[in-house]
Design a protein that fits this description.
The chain is an alpha/beta fold. The protein has helices at 79-84, 91-104, 123-130, and strands at residues 4-6, 23-25, 31-34, 40-43, 61-66, 106-117, 136-137, 144-150. The protein is globular and about 50 Å long. The model has no long low-confidence stretch (mean pLDDT 94).
């Protein structure tokens, strides 16, 4: 099994190597489209599973990347919805369940990397929904926030 799991990889936008052999790329969606500026937009994960209910055994990965959808409002077929995904109306339990599932598949002592865009929901609201403070990460409101959690050894 690969050591890294990205639970919601989308088009792998922040990867320097979009085909890194160490990463198992997962997303609920699989599709190809052309964005309004003419660029190809491809979501082609290794597996298609809901990140709130992953099929992997507990403690399977040394590192998990959790970059969930972050928009409450976007047109159904808009490029924003395609690129970033749209949250359900009751987004807080959804975000928390995805976070907990990411921790479940993380090995003891493993690292959970969380990315959040504050475009429509603040970092403080997001962290409140997760219910757990990160070990390190963005302290002030930024457009994009990064947080790191380390799973307890016990």
């Amino acid at each position: 099994m690969k050591p890294v799991l990205d639970v919601a990889c989308g088009s792998r936008m922040f990867y320097w190597n979009k085909h890194d052999p160490r990463v198992h790329f997962n997303d609920l969606r699989e599709f190809e489209d052309t964005l309004c500026d003419g660029r190809k937009f491809i979501v082609n994960p290794d597996s298609c599973h809901d990140f709130t209910d992953l099929p992997f055994p507990a403690e399977s990965f040394s590192c998990v990347i959790y970059d969930p959808p972050h928009l409450k409002f976007a047109g159904k077929d808009s490029w924003l919805a395609k690129k970033y995904g749209v949250l359900p109306e009751d987004w807080r339990p959804f975000i928390r369940k995805g976070f907990e599932e990411s921790k479940r598949v993380l090995k003891k002592g493993g690292t959970l990397i969380v990315k959040w865009s504050t475009n429509q929901i603040s970092a403080s609201e997001f962290l409140k929904a997760i219910g757990e403070k990160p070990m390190i990460g963005t302290r002030r409101q930024q457009k994009t926030c990064w947080y790191i959690y380390v799973k307890d050894e016990g």
